Amino acid sequence: MYVCIWCGKTASALYRRFNNGITKLSHCITCGNIVDIYTEYDSVLLLLDILLHKSRAFKHVLFNRNLNIQKRLFMLYLVCDTYIKLVQLPYSRSSSYKENCYNWHAVLERDFLWVFALTLSEYFIHFSVIYILVTFLCYYRCSIRISLFKVIKMLLLSSYGKLFNMAAAVWGANELLLSIWLTNIFVITSNAQALNVTFEISWRRSLIIVLTAFIVTKVISGSVQIWC
User: Fold this and answer.
1) Cα–Cα distances in angstroms (integers) from residue 21 to residues 16, 17, 187, in the given order
2) Which of 43, 71, 83, 107 is the most buried (most CB within 10 A)?
């Protein structure tokens, strides 16, 4: 089933094809508008609307596109975040450390595995906190059980902003820390918009849920790094 990007009601099809080869976009039986105008939009226009956090574009991607790239996105985000954390280590850009440390590559490999495991744990905590809060809110509000797969899919598809950090690190941005925090803000607002669209939670509550998950994840991650 598909979703009307205007009113959010379900629709049986996005378009109809006739025997003479003509294709006609379907109209919503509830609001009368075209179910999904992005069906005939160029990908660049869709991307611009997604960057602008337009709810209709998010509905198109989350409900009306059969995207099976969640696993690849997860691995891509994981590798990107691991690399960003690795280049922020105090010795990662120090040439004197590389010259004085005989087993520098072994140390780097060990730290890469440690940072990779830490990043993977952060993802687990972040997803878990959002799932728990969304489940509690939706069940308390209208006794609806939420699918964990649906939450993870929504978060992965709306976290595309994480790739901006990788581009900044590879191209040698001087203000990498500023880029990271700006990207974090962008990802938080994007996740909140996706949460608002997917589960019909108000924007304010969606933002609170995502911010809570972000803060909890950073606090636990920072505590683990200090303890270890």
Assistant:
1) 10, 7, 42
2) 83
Beta strands in 6-142 (DSSP E): 10-11, 15-17, 23-25
User: Using CA atoms, how far apart are residues 32 and 69, in angstroms rounded to an integer?
Assistant: 32
CA distance 204 to 222: 27
How many Cβ atoms are within 10 Å of 33's Cβ, its own excluded?
A: 13
Band (107; pLDDT cuts 50, 70, 90): low
Show the tokens assigned to 57: 């574009």
Q: Give me the pLDDT at residue 143, please.
A: 63
Residue 132 in tokens: 């728990």
What pLDDT was estimated at residue 130? 95
Paired tokens of 186: 């962008």
C-alpha to C-alpha distances, 4 to 40, 73, 193, nearest whole angstrom: 15, 26, 17
- pLDDT reading at 109 higher than 60: yes
Instruction: Report yes or no on whether pTM surpasses 0.85.
Output: yes
Q: What is the dihedral of CA 98, 168, 68, 126, to 10 degrees?
A: 80
Q: Are 88 and 176 a contacting pair, CB within 8 Å?
A: yes
Average pLDDT value for residue range 122-142: 88
Which 3 state secondary structure label does DSSP give 64? coil
- Cα 159 to its chain centre, rounded Å, is 2
Please compute the mean of the pLDDT values over residues 31-45 and round it to a whole number.
91
The backbone torsions φ and ψ at residue 201, rounded to the nearest 5 degrees and listed phi first, read -95, 140
How high is the pLDDT of residue 93? Answer: 45
